[in-house]
Amino acid sequence: MANFKNILIRFPNWLGDAVNGTIILTPLRQAFPDSKISILIKKNLTDLFHDCRLIDQVIPLSPQQSLLSQVRLLRKARYDLGIILPRSFSSALLFFLGNVKNRIGFSTEGRRFLLNQTVADPNPRRRIHITQEYRSIISSFVPPSSAELHPQIILEKPVYHRHFSSISENSETIIGICADALYGPAKRWPVQYFIELIQLIQKNYRNIKFVLLGLDQEVVRPILDAVPEVMSGVGHLQLYEVMQMIKKCSLLISNDTGLMHLAAGLGTPVIGLFGSTNPDWTRPLGKNSRVLYLHYPCSPCYLKKCPIGLPCLYKIYPAQVYAEIKKLHLTDPETRL
To answer: Where are the beta strands (DSSP E) in 81-172?
Structure first.
């Protein structure tokens, strides 16, 4: 095995993919305990590695940076190994122009000539989990691990953001809700179902607080109108603050989104709701992660908008999600408040 001393990893641009990319960090650090390992990632995702001790440096990519400035940055650092997790042409081009000595990644988008070592696409039909894709990139120079690995996000001493000052530190169970999905409406469980689920939980459990998380305030507005006691951090929090809140949650109920993967990476129990996408490819990993998926005949279609009324998600009813919640034994249910 080559003795690389200065390693740079290009992480994906989407939150969920970036969380899943952390699957390579532990075996990489074990293989190169004395090497410098740096991460190149979009600026808005750098908080993922705020407390990570497996790496030495996080380099933010800003939209304002020119390609030339990025190239100069890489050339100055003199990396001897570049691991490129995204499949894009531009990510390989940057490492090529940046004189990264050994560049490895998938042979996609006609970028084979930009790489020293290419990896054939192991998942053209999206039938294996995305973490296995990422592990295949490092398999040629990192010994296989017999241990069961999951994506992991490290967060030290999580605290409540001031926005949630009404939450008691110890006496209440917190359930997070992620009702939006930036990809498009074909990933969104009906908002009315979220409302019905919250009300169903309220009827049967006491001392539970609900926190809405995500970015799209318009999506969650009907929930706040119907259940005004629900708290919302939607559109108000930075990523590190969202991480702190999810870590405090006893459960996150989410569409197939980046926050779903973030919860799994933080070790928070999560229920993922899948319709137009494939849980074989992007389910949340971890012993406390569950998915609801109906295997509808036209799913997965990966469409952003459904032309036939989204039956793959409309047929997942609140009672089914509630049944999964009861299996987690979050707290002792009360018959009535």
So the answer is: 81-84, 103-106, 117-119
One digit per residue, the tens of pLDDT, for the chain of length 337 reads 578 999 999 999 999 999 999 999 999 999 999 999 999 999 999 999 999 999 999 999 998 999 999 999 999 999 999 999 999 999 999 999 999 999 999 998 999 999 999 999 888 888 899 999 999 999 988 987 767 789 999 998 766 556 665 665 555 789 999 999 989 999 999 999 999 999 999 999 888 999 999 999 999 999 999 999 999 999 989 999 999 999 999 999 999 999 999 999 999 999 999 999 999 999 999 888 999 999 999 999 999 999 999 999 999 999 999 999 998 876 544 433 2
Q: Can you tell me the distance from the alpha carbon of 315 to that of 273, in angstroms, rounded to the nearest whole number?
A: 11
Spatial contact of 219 and 241, defined as CB atoms under 8 Å apart? no
Give the closest residue to 300 by CA, choosing from 310, 309, 290: 310
User: Distance of CA 163 to CAs 122, 233, 237, 248, 258, Å?
Assistant: 44, 7, 9, 14, 22
Q: Which CB contacts under 8 angstroms, 24+ apart, belong to 290-296?
A: 290/324, 290/327, 292/316, 292/320, 292/321, 292/324
Residues 6+ away with beta carbon under 8 Å from 163 = 231, 233, 236, 237, 241
Tokens of 95: 């490492």
Domains identified in the chain and CATH numbers? 6-138 (3.40.50.2000), 162-327 (3.40.50.2000)
